[in-house]
Write a structure and sequence with these properties.
Elements: H1 3-17, H2 20-24, H3 42-56, E1 64-68, H4 74-83, E2 86-91, H5 94-103, E3 110-114, E4 127-133, H6 142-152, E5 153-166, H7 173-184, H8 193-202, E6 206-212, H9 214-217, H10 219-232, H11 237-255, E7 259-267
Parallel strand pairs: 1-2, 1-4, 2-3, 4-5
Antiparallel strand pairs: 5-7, 6-7
Helix pairs in contact: 3-4, 6-8, 7-11, 10-11
The protein binds S-adenosylmethionine.
GO molecular function, one term: methyltransferase activity
Domain Methyltransferase: 61-168
Organism: Lentzea albidocapillata
Length: 269
């Protein structure tokens, strides 16, 4: 692990201990709402996003799948159960490994370990498919990481990425919001759609589909901000200030029309 990934892991450890995951309903990612379905609660909407990722992996029963940046294990568990596959989840947060392992207790299809996507351990194995939900934005060199992941996936196997994106460069007040997100959430950067495409191409993946689902996920930011504000008072002192700052930044990010969200499907040639 590098000092950069230690910092990311430390941040997720801190947020896990402060109860942010429970506040979000388990998953640590955006929800997806079909238009007119705003009444659907956040936990169901985040599962819906996981389902959109799972559907695009083109899985067959028994397949081996890698979850890059697995959080507390909710997406891996859901995809393993829905598609009857084996999932290995990696994260740089020991707190998350512990929580995910507890969640998967008794399952012989899902396992979690501490590992850095920027420096993958040699004994991880090979996979039929890989997915990354809101984790690539923490990596300073996404193209190199995506190239290493490609080498772990069989020819024809899929990669699905769900991640934030900038539709237009954030300017004015938006620039400060972006800088705050980068600092507070230990993000390396938020790509434009073109940067996402370029990283995939450089890493040798064939792009099959790139959707901007920014409007479907937009309610997430205000809901996540509200959930963070609710727990801020009872959060441990080492995390309280960051939780309040993160809440305000997420709300502002969601209000900015330049904030998009990509759902990318690619294939190993
Ligand atoms: C926003 S959370 C998403 C968690 C999970 N994918 C979900 O949707 O619930 C980002 C995740 O990426 C992980 N992560 C960040 N940098 C990483 C790296 N270099 N290698 C592996 N995981 C990383 C974090 O530890 C965290 O689990």
């Amino acid at each position: 692990m590098t000092s950069q990934t230690d910092a990311v892991g430390g941040k997720y450890d801190q947020f896990a201990q402060a109860g942010t995951t429970e506040a979000l309903g388990g998953n640590i990612h955006a929800g997806y709402w079909d238009s007119g379905a705003e009444h659907v609660p956040m936990a169901a909407a985040t599962d819906r996003l996981t389902d959109l990722v799972g559907e695009r992996l083109a899985l067959r029963p028994g397949d081996r799948v890698l979850d890059v940046g697995c959080g507390n294990g909710f997406p891996a568990m859901r995809i393993a159960g829905t598609h009857d596959v084996h999932v290995t989840g990696i994260t740089v947060s020991q707190q998350e490994v512990d929580r995910a392992t507890e969640l998967a207790a008794g399952s012989d299809r899902v396992a979690f370990r501490l590992a850095d996507a920027a420096s993958l351990p040699g004994d991880l194995g090979t996979f039929d498919a890989v997915f990354a939900i809101e984790s690539l934005l923490h990596l300073p060199d996404q193209a190199s990481a995506l190239a290493r992941l490609r080498r772990l996936v069989r020819p024809g196997g899929r990669l699905v990425v769900a991640d934030l994106c900038q539709r237009e460069p954030f300017t004015g007040a938006g620039e400060a919001v972006l800088a705050g997100m980068i600092r507070t959430l230990e993000i390396a950067g938020i790509n434009s759609e073109l940067e996402h495409r370029a990283s995939l191409q450089k890493a040798g993946w064939d792009l099959l589909e790139l959707l901007d689902i920014g409007e479907n996920v937009r309610p997430s930011y205000e809901q996540a901000a509200a959930a963070f504000r609710r727990i801020a008072d009872s959060a441990p002192p080492f995390a309280a200030a960051d939780i309040i700052t993160a809440a305000e930044l997420m709300a502002a990010f969601g209000e900015n029309p330049s904030s998009g969200y990509v759902l990318i499907t690619a294939r190993r040639p």
